[in-house]
Amino acid sequence: MGAERHGGRVLIVEDDRSLLELYTEVLLGEGFEVAAAMDGAGALHALQTGSFDVVLTDVVMPGCTGVDVLRAVRERDLDVPVVLVTGSPTLETAVQALEMGALHYLLKPVASSEIVRCVEHAARLRRLASVKREALRYLGHAERFMGDRAGLEASFNRALAAHFMAYQPIIRASDGSVFGWEALLRTGEPSISSPLVFLEMAERLGRTRELGRLIRASVARTARRKRGLMFFVNLHPDDFLDEALYDESAPLSVLAPEIVLEITERSPFDSVPEVRERVRRLRALGFRLAIDDLGSGYAGLTSFASLEPDLVKLDRGLVREIDSQPVKRRLVGSIASVSRELGITVVAEGIETEGERETVTALGCELMQGYLFREPSAPGGDELSMPGS
After folding, report:
1. CA angle, 327 as apex, 263 and 367 as ends, to 5°?
2. Could you say which of 78, 159, 274, 314 would form a disulfide bridge with 187 (CB–CB 3.0 to 4.6 Å)?
3. 218: which DSSP letter?
4. Nearest CA-CA partner of 254 in 227, 272, 235, 280
5. Contact at 8 Å (CB) between 147 and 79?
6. In what helix (H) or strand (E) does residue 70 lie, and over which residues does it extend?
7. In the predicted model, is pLDDT for residue 143 greater than 80?
8. Using one digit for the tens of pLDDT, what is the confidence trace for 154-193?
9. DSSP classification of residue 125
10. Which residue has the higher pLDDT, 14 or 154?
């Protein structure tokens, strides 16, 4: 007895009318519901007006390619399988199709039985993907990186279009005044659950430099309106390889004396070539440097010495409940003491209670940051101001 067949809704895109009629007849006979289009425009219209379990599309068509159809599918649904069919195969097209997430890449002429087999396989995977998402939601897990490259690109592009920068104050321990503001990446795209996921998507897609340029331009626009304030901007290690970072005419470079560039210990920095020369170029523009998340991992003494940071920001894990944990007090006290000897300013991040604030101040941390003072927020009517700042 053959496998049970459950059908589903299939969109067929084929500019050869005889093949379109053949595929339609075969799939209708197997219990599928079928919608048909003879070109890219018809396919895009069908995708805008209906939902499908499988898309079967020719590669070369008037108006757009099968890969274009695949991208359009991913803009609407990460899980719909796409089967590509072509009579003019090329290695470039095949590689692109598979990289973008095509489930099958079939060469014409294709036997009816092969069409049925591939579409049935795709429909089953569609059902499996739906159940998997349901299980993830039930278990409370984030849906990170589900779908193929085309789906990730669609989500990432929406996230870029909806991005904004939130700002959190960095406070002087001595008098509670505002020393500066850290710019934190955010997006209104609902499929991106956190800034970390946003950044990891950029890494997976090879678009970290694009994202870095967008962040720096966004901060520059705000900083130009608020001259005299200090802004902290996070860098990805890949940003150091982007020549745009060193362009003296770049929007952020023009404001360099009012900018602190943060490099996190959470990312491997040792692999960046010619670090000292790159740091020299940044300092020549007027930037100051900070090591973020100190104590969290990757950066060793070599990276620390190469960067010669002006500031270090303690990992919030060292700060959390520090008032009740002697080991953390000893560690932070030692870091603060040695940093003073090196002429480095210490920022205690993640301050949420008065006890934490009082303790890090007593231990010698000059600057503080955390929800106790203010949550990150986009510039609004107050335009980066605080009572008493």
Report:
1. 40
2. 159
3. H
4. 227
5. yes
6. helix 66-76
7. no
8. 889 999 999 999 999 999 999 999 999 999 999 999 878 7
9. H
10. 14
The pLDDT assigned to 87 comes to: 85
- What pLDDT was estimated at residue 381? 43
Average pLDDT score over the chain: 85
Tell me if the bond preceding 251 is cis, omega within 30° of 0: no
Domain 150-368 has CATH 3.40.50.300: no
Rg (C-alpha) for the chain, rounded Å, is 27
Task: Find where tokens 């040792």 sit.
Answer: 270
6, two tokens: 């459950």
CA distances from 168 to 176, 177, 192, 357, 372 (A): 14, 13, 21, 16, 11
Contact 72, 44 (CB under 8 A): yes
Position 6 scores a pLDDT of 55
Token pair belonging to 84 = 């590509």
**Token pair for 206:** 């090879």
Give the distance, in angstroms, between the CA of residue 75 and the centroid of all CA atoms in the same chain.
16
> What are the C-alpha distances in Å from 183 to residues 187, 221, 235, 378?
13, 12, 11, 9
- pLDDT tens-digit series, residues 313-354: 988 888 999 999 999 999 899 888 888 888 899 999 999 999
Query: If you write DSSP's letter for every residue of 221-245 in order, what string do you get?
Result: HHHHHTTT--EEEEE-GGGGG-GGG
Q: What are the structure tokens assigned to 290, written together? A: 């900070």
Q: What is the residue extent of each domain of the chain?
A: 8-139, 150-368
pTM: 0.67
Provide the residue type at 212 as one letter: G
Write out the two tokens for 378.
């986009």
Question: How many Å apart are CA 56 and CA 65, to the nearest integer?
Answer: 12
How many Å apart are CA 186 and CA 87, to the nearest integer? Answer: 45
CATH superfamily assigned to domain 8-139: Response regulator (3.40.50.2300)
**What pLDDT is recorded for position 34?**
95
| Three-state SS at 56 | strand
pLDDT in tens, 21-53: 999 999 999 999 999 999 888 988 998 888 899
